[in-house]
Every structure is written in structure tokens, then in C-alpha cells.
Amino acid sequence: MAFSPLIKQLIEALQCLPGIGPKSAQRMALHLLERDRKGAERIVASLATALSEVGHCRSCRTLTELDYCSICADPKREKSILCVVESPADMLAIEQAGGYRGHYFILQGHLSPIDGIGPEEIGVDDLLAQLQQRAVEEMILATNPTVEGEATAHFIAQQAIALGVKVTRIAHGVPVGGELEYVDGGTLLHAFAGRKQMGLGE
Amino acid sequence: MAFSPLIKQLIEALQCLPGIGPKSAQRMALHLLERDRKGAERIVASLATALSEVGHCRSCRTLTELDYCSICADPKREKSILCVVESPADMLAIEQAGGYRGHYFILQGHLSPIDGIGPEEIGVDDLLAQLQQRAVEEMILATNPTVEGEATAHFIAQQAIALGVKVTRIAHGVPVGGELEYVDGGTLLHAFAGRKQMGLGE
Lengths: 202, 202
Fold this sequence. Notes:
The structure is a homodimer. The first copy, chain A, is α/β, with parallel strands linked by helices. Chain A has two domains: 5-53, Helicase, Ruva Protein, domain 3; 63-169, Dna Topoisomerase Vi A Subunit, Chain: A, domain 2, CATH 3.40.1360.10. The first copy, chain A, is built from eight helices and six strands. Chain A has helices at residues 5-14, 22-35, 37-53, 88-97, 119-122, 124-133, 147-162, 185-193; strands at 55-56, 63-64, 78-85, 102-106, 138-141, 166-169. A four-stranded parallel β-sheet of chain A has the order 4-3-5-6. In chain A, strands 1-2 form a two-stranded antiparallel sheet. In chain A, helix 2 packs across helix 3.
């Protein structure tokens, strides 16, 4: 069936959303126009405002419309520990897990020389400048456990160590609550290589 | 973690989309702001335009920015057959199945007296007016096979029959390609009640 041009355009635009294909986009477009115009207006207004107002935190570079995000502005957070992640979503996952009380630095993704994405594009120069300016006792590299994430972690580690900063990498191993049977070989190898001696009462 | 107010608002607004909960909305908001601002601008522009321009076809009441939709404006479609559905999405499903060459009438949902939705709210008066004005040989009721859809079909059928229109209801039975084992009892009863004698060569 031929949708009218404006509806077709809307369906195509909605496919910019992550995980949304033509079928879901069509369902969304019809739903918004037929049943929830108020909701559609809210999306237009809040998305337009966010696009014009939301930028990056001056310190950690996460998304925020403020100069400094709520974590960087929180005096109770430990300034001397810096956790480096690839995206605001990763920072969010760590925050939701609880337990971490330090600061963050959010890269704009990972190194990908094939796509022309080098250290400057993801903000490594800014990170290194911060390491030189503030007293960071430990930098925790929490980039993704992918080939690109590992390469990015390795690259940053070398630069930071040269500056005299203590650098750590989050542990790789079997996920908590999973079953060993379903864990992939690479993870198992990491889990064995990273094994720790147990003491009494553990 | 505390998102900044504008990002929070955006995440809440995106939950107006059908099938999108807090987690997916959060993922969408971060993706649009961090990785696809061009796409976000397209969504804002096309949704705003659609909201202001898209209304209903004057004849079948489907969504379109034109006075008459492409089906109503198509001289090759059979004007004397009218298929009544509950939403533009239902019309689309029938069009994608192919085979139907008549016109449509799109109700604004189904009768739901508890929610104060009576015949006028879903456009039954407009449908009956059309039946009196144009020569409809057959009206096919293709409302959903739900309690409300059946009640709506029954109500419309009574009014249309009183106007001397031939009214049919789409068949209820076992879905093509499914396995009998997994078909619910109500559908099986309908399938038995609606059984047809087979001839040679069928």
C-alpha cells in the first residue's frame, strides 16, 4: 500500500532509532498520528529542546545541558579515581551497578583507524590533558571487552603510564549468575588466566 | 544515576512510542544525542510536519495529508465493495496481503461503552451516511476478532442491513500455516462451525 508522502517520510525518519526497523517504525508512525498526537507533540518538543540544549560536561564529557554533570559537580565523589568508558550508556551501567564512587571520563567511542577514528576523535588528548592537570591516583580503563575496546584501553594505558599514572583494567572473567556451560571460550581463558588464590573465610 | 532534566524529559517522552519502555527509551535518547543528531533532527522535522499536515481522508478516513487517499482516488478500485476496519494499520495488513480491490472505511477503533466510546466517536454515523449516498453492493466487516471487534461488527451490521445493504463478516478459522495443536479452543470451534463442503478437484 502506498502511504502518503509525509507518512512515508516519518516512517523513514523513525528508523534512525536504534533497534527500529521498517515494521516497528510504521507501527510507531500510525500509533502517534492515529492515537497519541499529544505524545507525538511531547516527543517533538523534548527532542528539539534536547538537541539544542544538551551538550557535553566540560569535565567528563558525558551528555548534559549543564556546564558540569551531576557526578562531576558532586563533592562527595572521589576525585582522585577516574574511570574511562566508551559512552554515556556505559557510565550509566556502572552507576546503576552501584559501588563505584569516583569520577568518569567518557570517550566518544573507541579507536577505529579503518574508519579514520584516531585518538583525537574520541577525546584521548583531552583525557591526557586532564591527567596532567589533576591528581589522579588511579585510572580504571572500562572500555568494552571487544577488540576495539581492548586496543583503545592499551593505547590509553601506554600514554598514561608514561605520565606516571597508575592504570588498571576491569577484570575479564565469567559473568556473575551465568552458567559456565554457556560461557564462550575466550572468556573462559581470561577467567582462568585471571584466577585468584582464595583465603580462609572467603 | 541522575540524568540531567532535559535528558530525563526526553526519555519520558519517548515512552509514548508503542512497545518502548524506560530501558529502550533511555537507549534511544543516548543514541540520538550521542551518535545520531542528524537522525534526531529528521525525526523532529518529519514528526512536526506530519502532526500539522496529516489528517484523515475525506472518504475512508485513513491517515493522509491529501483530501483523498491514494486508494479512494484510484479509479481502478471497485467502489461498490466497502471493507470496514478498526485502524489504518488493519487496512495496511489487508493491502499487503493483496487480493482485495475494493474501498475501505476506517473506524476510529471499536465500540467501548465503558470508556464512553459510542458509535459517533468511532465514526459509525459517517459510515451509515456513506452507505446511503453511494451504491455499496457489499460491506465486508473486518473489525478485529475480539469481543469489542465482534460487538462493533454486530452493531454496524444491524444498522446497515436495515438500510438494505448486503453485509458480510470475514471468516474466523484456523490461521493458514499454523499447527492445529497450538490453535486456541475458540478458534477451533469457529473453524468447525464454519466448515465447508469440498468438491472434486479442490
